[in-house]
Design brief:
This protein is an alpha+beta fold and 506 residues long. It contains 17 helices and 17 strands. The strands form 3 sheets. It has an 8-stranded mixed beta sheet with strand order 10-11-9-12-16-15-17-14. The structure holds alpha-D-galactopyranose. Alpha-D-galactopyranose binds next to helix 5.
Amino acid sequence: MSRFVDQYGRKPVVAVFAPGRVNLIGEHVDYNDGFVLPFALPFRTIIVGDVVRNDSHAQTSSVTSCNMISDHTATFTCDSSLTKGEPVWANYVKGVVSQYVNDLPPGSAFEAVIMSDVPLGSGLSSSAALEVATATFLEKLYKIDAISGVTKAKRCQLAEHTFADMPCGIMDQSVSAMAQEGTLLLLDCRTKEFKLVTVGSKAPSGTPLPVVVICNSNVKHTLSGSEYPDRVRQCKEAVAALQRTYPEITALRDVTLEQLEFLNICDADSDAKNHVTAVPTSGDFVEKVAVKGSSRTRHTAARGKCENKSEGDHTALVSSMSELAYRRAHHCITEDARTVAAAHALEEGNYILVGGLMTQSHLSLQYDYEVSCDELDLLVLTALGIKGVYGARMTGGGFGGCTVNLVRADCVDELISQLRQTYPACECYLSTPSSGTDELPLDSAMPVITGAVSRYGDSFGDDTDADWLSVRVDGVVMSIVDNPWITAASVAAAVAVFGIIITRRR
Ligand code: GLA
């Protein structure tokens, strides 16, 4: 707010926010038409602004970022000539503007300031938060109605494809656009239909609610930068291979484990690469964690079917699927099943099952999908050794970023302290499901430092649901929304251990 006043000499007329997200389970399946279970974080990107009022600059929009890596102003015109360029962060804004060009009055130009507390490059969707905040900003500033949450998410996804060269799925933009406070979003990435999942809503009364602890490794292995597009391509190759036998399949979402194993066994028999024994970790893992029944049964059943095929059929299947494609497909198929099961178990209050599914998910991402890294594996392993931790896994695109842990409320302190002891560079966030993008009252757009921890008890619990608190000290950041996921008592205890400053919105 004050930055806008300093830079543009007047008060902004619109303020909006869009949140980052954490994905509890359902990783790398959104671009395979699968199921995901993310929730919106209290970390937000905020945009304040106004239309250009100075006639001499009428055609040029100007956007200033307060903390996107460096302080920068980007200028551009809102028309079909928009192209990506420098600074890189502005491509997310320009990409979204290009999606809205046909909704804007001709010659539109705006001035805006952006501020974000979504950790950058940590797999918590700072990009989607910026895209969705830009979309909401344009809608509010130019009074563009009737854009549904799904349309907004699709436009933002397209912006990322075209202006950031990132062939992402629809998860991040959907949850930033459509999340509702206190709930997770079980999203069907094919139909875009979703169910709001409330933790413990069907649990026996008195079942204590668990806590989600996000642990940021603060590493980002960029590798060649092509790992994500590679995974997208490998999944397409797996679909193409499967389609030769099952033409009705359009995405990995459609494939059953039986179909996958059938093809796999036929391939294995025909060229002497037997996946039952030759894909060590994933194969062993499949046997231990298959959601329904043991994979050995399926291998045997599939082998039987394969042997019954005529020679012609069999030849048609030879070399139809590489080992790599098999493992990628195997992750996606099992991850979909885990995600749907986890959503159900979360409502039922079966946190042991949810945690088990999360941990299976991590192993599948580590071995079958190969998107984890040493730091994330260490953080997961450390967490799993702590009493009261139901499950742990990497979250987001991988190769660095964060882990997500489901833990009993009374074991949070121990978990955070062990994680920091094993891996001192990590940061922990205690987060609860928060709301999706919206307009903000202008006077509440910026966080206000209200006091020290000792005042915490006075300000929590008797305010409205709009409360947003974050506590930062010595590498620990806790973001807390006034809802029942974390009880006032457990938060107060955690704050007493770690907190010094409370940042409070509204
Ligand atoms: C990134 C992408 C998402 C999704 C995740 C992995 O965050 O933007 O679309 O694919 O990775 O689940």
